[in-house]
Write a structure and sequence with these properties.
Strand content: 25-35%
Shape: globular
Length: 825
């Protein structure tokens, strides 16, 4: 059936470069689809978070451009109780919401049986799994294909996914196809890939697997340190460990096995001073495959990407062309279809590249490629799944300098020979930053909790998307990434500057920690500006002490200005005012609540003097906070009541504190309350200020929610300083915990126990408690505006007008009758 053109376009239909509007999906497929054309109008999104948000937005934008109806494709989305409670953005975007079991992803988004049942139940035409979860499980496309009627998986078929999605299998295929590979334990394996069945000989695969800790040690000796121990089914930073010492091999092997249970394991040589470059592939169901340029993802921590950019400028155009050609050849050799990514390690000094893996799915960072090629990748995935050849996809045609549409698609002249055709140059440069709920100052530990404010303003040069808004939250089963920002510019430096400004204007406030401030400082470092980076660059910064976000002695001296524009002393007074105000308010509510229930509350709930201790930059402030009115305090050094600074505090509607000190007002937010394992965090003038907890190495606690996976040492063990004693699972990641001092451990919790922030895992009887350093107690005068002797006044009483004096006197009488402490003046 011929496509129905809108009246505004029909008059100029002779111009094939104009955007055409089709009546529906069926007419679109009928005209542009090949022999394998199929109509897809209802899609199940087997994912959550940013993945689901990005897919729905991209396909709806494409649907509006092509059909004039963004709802031409309807979406069925899965929703766990945790995602519903967290007010996840993708749930509001879905057309049909399906409740699924909560908990870890093997109960929901990674549960192939559940996904297939839901797809059949709701009569969808296709399933989009995105990245993570079930996206690389061959059982999903295989099971969907066996449905009646068959359901299309938007991605590669099961056999090539199994062969290439498995890191061991893909490396065997790559090395036998002549693609350069780095030294690994299966370098001697010779095998031929069966394109028909999509399999490798089983004996060849097993020959390349590391099956025990002893086997791992033997392979490590053969390959030579340093090495990487990797789970074949891992990804996203999970199931991978770097090892520099032979004595650490066995423990690292066990950790990798634990993070990705049941996955085959392999070992490869660690390539130092290398970059992580990747080629974006797109292949159709008719044997064509193309490279859509690529990305540089060298800025990583714990092998998890946090900054991506494209096009890659580290490799010369000649070398990059070879990398693209090798990736396309590999895809064609296995009959690959849909989107995929070939990852390489690139040695810049000798201009050599080595195959790392092929990801048979869309990557989180794919919008980088979208911005430099103008190709909508989720929409391109959908069109490939509809059986449309690459040379008929309008955006691909534009990328190769052709008309978006031809009058006669059956004409052989409309076919593009991708082996000889040249792409148009990339549209400038793009830099992407992942926004994660992690504490960068504590080794990027994942955090969870509610979000009170999320304020991001898109500009022509910067856009982004988030998995929730200001009313959402990050739950313990969620991925730590909840946002992604993309900055573009005519060149790398302009894109970098645009990103810096966007990060400075991004405001996120809540119970979580984020990497925003950290990355903002990171991309302003000289090494990043000069593009002098590799995969070990960020880990090296972390190992050397990292980037200090909070005020420090080196960057924020008493009386000087730091990132927040305030001195340490002023920040301590602000923090003390918040703590005292909250304590008084909470106790008053408790007092009146008890009275309402007919109970006699203790008078201690109404105390007007609060002692507050805060540690900032290794200095302990012992402050005495005296309430002098409903919202006023006098802050003094404990034991030195003769001098103080008056403060006032008012609550804002968004939960902020408007605090006045010395005639100047500051807006502060308490982003995290103090507990046994971590100190209070506040945000002042948009900058994060972290107060430290009292240093107590004898109490071994966790500062994040998770699960105690394994005790690495038995009860009563003698541990050296820095020795690991336990492993905890936090947001799908295994993290080791280490003692900070030498001593004897006594366990207070069991393996498998669910942990809340501040929970005690064990106690440590210190070998040398006298050597434990503690914070220096502050002494002397606070360098704060308004600091002075009690009773001193800026304006003598006799200089005030009578009505002002009367009003102040009445206010003091009211405060006194309310129980507040009255000053001597």
């Amino acid at each position: 059936m011929a496509p129905q053109l809108s009246s505004t376009r029909s008059k100029a239909v002779s111009n094939p470069n104009l955007h055409r509007r089709f009546h529906d999906v069926a007419s679109y497929v009928a005209e542009l689809g090949g022999s394998k054309g199929r109509v897809i109008e209802k899609v199940l999104i087997a994912n959550n978070g940013v993945g689901a948000v990005k897919a729905i937005r991209s396909i709806r934008r494409w649907a509006y451009e092509v059909f004039g109806d963004e709802r031409a494709i309807s979406f069925v989305v899965m929703a766990t109780p945790e995602d519903l409670r967290s007010n996840a953005e993708y749930i509001r975007m879905g057309d049909i919401i399906v409740d699924v079991p909560g908990g870890s992803n093997n109960h929901n988004y990674a549960n192939v049986t559940l996904i297939v049942e839901l797809a059949r139940l709701h009569g969808v035409h296709a399933v989009w799994a995105g990245w993570g979860h079930a996206s690389e499980k061959p059982a999903l496309p295989n099971s969907l294909a066996k449905s009646d009627p068959p359901i299309k998986f938007i991605g590669p078929a099961g056999p090539p996914m199994y062969a290439l999605g498995d890191k061991i299998g893909s490396t065997i295929i790559a090395q036998n196809a002549g693609v350069p590979c780095i030294a690994w334990n299966g370098a001697d394996v010779v095998a031929e890939y069966d394109v028909e069945s999509g399999t490798l000989p089983e004996e060849a695969f097993q020959q390349a697997c590391v099956v025990s800790a002893a086997d791992a040690s033997a392979c490590a000796e053969k390959i030579g340190l340093p090495i990487m121990i990797k789970a074949s089914e891992g990804g996203g930073g999970k199931g991978i460990r770097m090892v520099n010492k032979m004595e650490d091999v066995a423990n690292a092997y066990r950790q990798v096995c634990g993070e990705v249970p049941g996955s085959p394991i392999f070992i490869m040589k660690l390539s130092t001073n290398s970059r992580h470059l990747e080629v974006q592939l797109l292949a159709d169901e008719y044997g064509d495959a193309i490279a859509l340029n690529g990305r540089d993802c060298s800025v990583q921590r714990r092998h998890q990407k946090i900054i991506e950019e494209g096009p890659p400028v580290a490799a010369s155009p000649e070398v990059w062309k070879k990398m693209e050609e090798a990736a396309v050849s590999l895809a064609k050799a296995v009959g690959y279809a849909n989107a995929g990514t070939v990852e390489y390690l690139y040695s810049e000094p000798d201009e050599k590249f080595y195959f790392l893996e092929l990801n048979p799915r869309l990557q989180v960072e794919h919008p980088v490629t979208e911005m430099i090629t103008r190709v909508n990748l989720p929409a391109a995935q959908l069109q490939v799944a509809m059986g449309i050849p690459l040379h008929h996809i309008p955006e691909i045609r534009e990328l190769y300098g052709k008309n978006r549409f031809e009058d006669d698609v059956s004409d052989s002249r409309s076919v593009i020979d991708f082996s000889t055709a040249e792409r148009i140059p990339p549209y400038g440069h793009c830099i992407a930053v992942r926004i994660t709920a992690e504490n960068a100052e504590q080794g990027f530990k994942p955090t969870s909790g509610g979000i009170q404010e999320l304020n991001f303003r898109s500009t022509p040069n910067v856009w982004g998307y988030f998995s929730m808004d200001s009313s959402g939250s990050i739950h313990e089963f969620a991925d730590s990434q909840f946002g992604h920002l993309f900055a573009s510019g005519p060149d790398r430096e302009q894109a970098r500057r645009n990103m810096v400004l966007a990060l400075k204007e991004l405001s996120i406030r809540g119970d979580i920690s984020t990497t925003v401030d950290y990355i903002s400082k990171l991309i302003e470092m000289d090494d990043f500006i000069d593009n002098n980076i590799d995969t070990a660059w960020l880990d090296g910064i972390i190992a050397s002490g990292g980037i200090k976000i909070s005020p420090s002695a080196s960057s924020l001296r008493r009386g000087s200005s730091g990132g927040s524009g305030l001195s340490n002393d002023t920040l301590a007074v602000i923090g003390a005012t918040i703590v005292a105000f909250d304590e008084c308010s909470d106790d008053e509510k408790t007092f009146t609540g008890l009275l309402d229930r007919g109970q006699l509350p203790p008078l201690t709930l109404l105390k007007m003097i609060r002692d507050v201790e805060l540690i900032l930059d290794e200095v302990k402030y012992k402050l005495c906070c005296t309430r002098t009115g409903k919202d006023t305090f006098k802050i003094a050094i404990s034991g030195m009541p003769s001098k103080c600074v008056p403060t006032s505090v008012r609550m804002l509607s968004d939960g902020g504190y408007l605090i006045s000190i010395g005639g100047k007002s500051q807006v502060a937010y308490q982003t995290s309350k103090a507990d046994a394992a971590s100190g209070m965090k506040i945000s002042v003038n948009g900058k994060t200020v972290s107060f430290s907890p009292d240093y107590d190495p004898s109490s071994l606690r966790t500062d994040v929610a998770g699960k105690l996976v394994k005790k690495l040492v038995p009860n009563g063990s003698q541990l050296k300083k820095g020795a690991p004693y336990a492993e905890i699972e936090v947001m799908k990641m295994f993290m080791p915990l280490k003692v900070e001092e030498a001593g004897t451990i006594t366990w207070a919790n069991n393996e498998g126990a669910a942990l809340a922030p501040g929970d005690l895992l064990a106690t440590l009887e210190l070998d040398n408690p006298e050597n434990v350093s503690t914070a220096t107690v502050f002494e002397g005068d606070l360098d704060v505006a308004g600091w002075g002797s009690v009773g001193a006044s800026d304006s003598p009483t006799n200089s005030k007008r009578p009505h002002i004096t009367l009003r102040e006197a009445l206010d003091k009488v009211k405060c006194g009758m309310a129980g507040d402490v009255l000053s001597s003046d």
